[in-house]
Amino acid sequence: MVFDKVEAVIMGIIGLAVVGSLSNVGKTFNQFDELKTKNLQSTNTINLLNQEEKSLQQQAKVANNRYKTGCLVLVKGTHPNLFYSNLAVGEIPTDRHTNKPLVQGTIVCDSQGATAVIQGDGSIGSLAVTNNRSVIESRLKTFRGGMFSQPVTSK
């Protein structure tokens, strides 16, 4: 088969076009890999956020139950200048009259929605938080007027 000059030029142009398109195919695969990686990262982020949301919902249920069943609201200061204290894991609240640590298993809470359990060493642990203001306020109303002797976190 003999090609004349015009056919040879056309075949050359077609050959160059094929080679050029092959390099574009490589670029397209690279772009596809980048998109796939970004999509995987987004999916992982969404999965982590969903797990975190479920954990927060479970914590809120625990905290709501602790407020409803009667947690001890912690305060700071000395009588009559007491004010609500925030819970801090590891801190050791004491009975304000005896200055002794609270009994293991005592449920404590604060005015911001945090609840916890007193551990064997007297420290605060097993923190759970709620943002349900009505359940928090309902518990805080029990202590207004000094009916109960609230434990203190520090003086």
Q: How would you portray this structure in words?
A:
By secondary structure, the chain is α+β, with helices and mostly antiparallel strands. The chain has one domain. 49% of the residues lie in helices and 15% in strands. The chain has 2 helices and 6 strands, in the order αββββββα. The chain has helices at residues 5-69, 133-143, and strands at 72-73, 75-78, 81-84, 107-109, 114-118, 124-129. Strands 1-4-5-6 form a 4-stranded mixed sheet. It is rod-shaped and about 110 Å long. The model has no long low-confidence stretch (mean pLDDT 82).
Strand fraction equals 15-25%
Q: Largest sheet, if any?
A: 4 strands, mixed
Annotation field: number of helices: 2
Q: What is the β-strand count?
A: 6
Count of discrete domains: 1
Work out the helicity level. Answer: 40-55%
Radius of gyration from the alpha-carbon trace, in angstroms: 33 Å
Order of helices and strands: HEEEEEEH
Unreliable stretches? none
Overall pLDDT, averaged? 82
Which geometry do the CA atoms define?
rod-shaped
Structural classification: alpha+beta
First-to-last CA distance: 104 Å
Strand order in space, largest sheet:
1-4-5-6
